[in-house]
Design goal:
Length: about 190
């Protein structure tokens, strides 16, 4: 079974990855700089089909995936694995904005990050997060969650929607993924 966390970065993706690993599920979190550099070929046209082809081998490396590029190519994942499970973990948009600013404030965005932000908010020559206002970032986050949820629900995909900080979320997530929770959901900042 394939499990795709389609939440954008800074939405518990590392915590999800560790939660899976603690429960014996082969999990991958962010494919690394080499694949990130290859992803530049999908910009600025925001070609998710090309990005999917670039990442295809990565999605054979484990059973569960989180962080970019997973949040960008979930439509193609559903086509390839119609019985896959999808996870969408959210947090308050203002918290998320603070987290992404803290995480990326003094560096250029990676290509997969640029794909997310510029795909949602429009192409900007500036390759840093400061090219966007906090209101734009919050809107992009809300729109991603609403769009992913609507797309997957419309196709009757196996979808779990949860929230960071919800004490019942780890148990519900484990039930959804088909195992009994033996470990808590890690809090990775």
């Amino acid at each position: 079974m394939k499990i795709f966390n389609v939440s954008p970065h800074r939405s518990g993706t590392q915590s999800f990855h560790q939660f899976c690993r603690l429960h014996g599920i082969a999990s991958a979190h962010w494919p690394g700089s080499d694949l990130d550099r290859e992803a530049r070929g999908a910009l600025p046209q925001f070609d998710t089909a090309l990005l999917w082809r670039i990442c295809a081998e990565y999605f054979t490396s484990a059973d569960a995936f989180s962080d970019f590029p997973t949040a960008l190519v979930y439509r193609h994942a559903l086509e390839k694995w119609p019985n896959a499970r999808f996870v969408l973990i959210g947090r308050e948009p203002a918290e998320w904005v603070r987290s992404v600013i803290r995480h990326t404030q003094d560096r250029d965005l990676g290509y997969l990050e640029r794909f997310f932000y510029q795909g949602a908010l429009g192409w900007r020559e500036q390759a840093r997060l400061c090219a966007y206002s906090e209101a734009e970032l919050a809107a992009a986050y809300r729109n991603h969650h609403a769009g992913a949820q609507a797309f997957l629900e419309a196709r009757s995909a196996h979808l779990f929607v949860g929230a960071l900080g919800d004490p019942a979320m780890p148990g519900r997530l484990a039930d959804f993924m088909g195992f009994r929770p033996e470990h808590s959901f890690p809090a990775i900042a």
